[in-house]
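Task card 7
Instruction: Convert sequence to structure tokens.
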Amino acid sequence: MRRIFGSIRSRATLGATLVVAVALVAAGAAVLLSLRSNLMDQAGNEAQRTAQNVVAELAAGKPYDQLDLDDESPVQVVDADGTLVAASDELERISGTATDAVEPQPRSGGTGTGAGDDDDDADDDSGRGEAGEIGEGTEFSDGSATIDGESADYRFAAVPVEAGDRGRLTVYAGGSLDAEQSAVNTALTVMLIGFPLLLGVVAGVTWLVTRRALRPVEGIRGEMAAITASEDLARRVPVPGTHDEVARLALTTNETLAALQTSVERQRRFVADASHELRSPIASLRTQLEVGVAHPELLDLDGAVEDTVRLQGLAADLLLLARLDAGERPGDARFDLGALAREQAEGRAEVTVEARSAQVAGSRGQVGRVLTNLLDNAARHARSAVTLTVRREGEWVVAAVADDGDGVAEADRERIFERFVRLDEARSRDDGGAGLGLAIARDVAVRHGGTLTVGRAPAGGALFELRLPQAQ
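Output:
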């Protein structure tokens, strides 16, 4: 059961069906109530018309035994004392009115009964009351009655009338509720049969529509599972041509796969290049040590020290790159970039420094490493002079390192910031470095919210500009 309702399609179908079911029940209840109310009002209006016809006759002074009482509907005439003075001839039982009596009671004082009297007919004025007035205010009630052996429910209307010397009378007339009950029962039956069928249609349509809508998602999931199993990051998930959320999900997934593929390839290339770069100094150092063990007089201590220093520097570069790749935050310490530039240029005879004081925030050690790498790179390529300047440009602090060498070709100005890239392949590894200095400098600049670019210096060499946001 958990697996069935664990799918989006099942939950969507169940949710849509429940919503429609609630809406149908609410709408059905409203329809039934409205239908019942309208039919009740019709029955009440019918009862009121019947009662008003009798009231009009009573107001005109017509005797009780001559009243035109509807034999198909229950009618009662009750006096102020609650005594039944006139009723329909076929009335056998009644409830819901002021009295459940069905046989009129004889009255003295010139009033008649529910049946005719030959002696009264002989007297022209016998059984006739004085003219009266129709009262105001009709009241309604529900009840039942039996007429000529048939029982039914009725809506009763009670209409008062002032009947002259006969006093205040109340006429009760009933309107049949058979039509109301029949219509409500029919509507209820239709709903009980139709609603489940409609819910079944809604559930089926929702199931099919959701299945079709989620089919691309299943394709994405299947392809992702295949990529995970094969570890082939070159594969991509299918992108539907619907231009909807699913299509955007597929595009984003492919972008993520592309970034992951690039990252993995970069990591593999990094490991391979690092291994290659480490192999040379380690092999050289091992060879020198083995020669020294066998022939101490041939041990090249200076070369061993140089290889050790180079190996130490390479290990430091690799460690810094690993920390940068891991997302190490540079911190927010404030320091003077101009003072740091003068400090890094100290002891370099070929470097001319023009550094103004400017405050930046971040890691002083990492930014110092950037300046060192730029100065080392400039010293390797300069003919005679290197210039280091620090200035402010709006909200930025710019540290520029320029040399008078051959410069960097425009096509290579981005490539030199890649790891283990050396344009001077003809140089020895000892002179040219491992190709990590500029890559480290670019990564540090970016993580400090700045940039590192290369262009052409006024003297014709390379011009590296480090831009960092000025500390607030």
